[in-house]
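Residues pack. Consider this:
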Amino acid sequence: MTNERRQAINDFAGKIRELFAVATDEPIGKFGDIVARLGGRIEETSKDYLYEQVVKKSSESFTIYLDKTGAYSSEQQRFTTAHELGHLLIHMGYGTKNWDSVNIGDNYNKVLGIYSIVEEEADEFAAAFLMPEEGFIKVAKESSNDIEEIAKHFNVAVIDAKKRGRCLGIWGR
């Protein structure tokens, strides 16, 4: 992904945070509320579902399907929900005229072993939405770069906070 594309995704994630009136150094609240405010819903599904976790266009709006087996922590589920919102908003065009061309049942999904630029972009959106650069740097300084404290503050998994810190150049890449 180019630096320009990365910055555009970060700016877009910031605009979505502003839409929900969440400060850059504050964690995102309940995702069920955010998804509902966007007109969608979250459903849990078992791993024997074809796609582990996915967002799909439904007749009324959209549905984000999440794993209910307990294989993922609540922090990992938050990142996954934000990742699926990235697909919805960036790749499926939700809220734009492009949404009309998406068929009911269409989705963007992450199938194990397959990774592409759209997955990288959805991960970038999730990281920027959950841990905006300005807020991340502020919390990192306040915590003396304590990664566990940063992860706890933003309610994300330590691995996701580490990746974000590396991406922002706080730690080596």
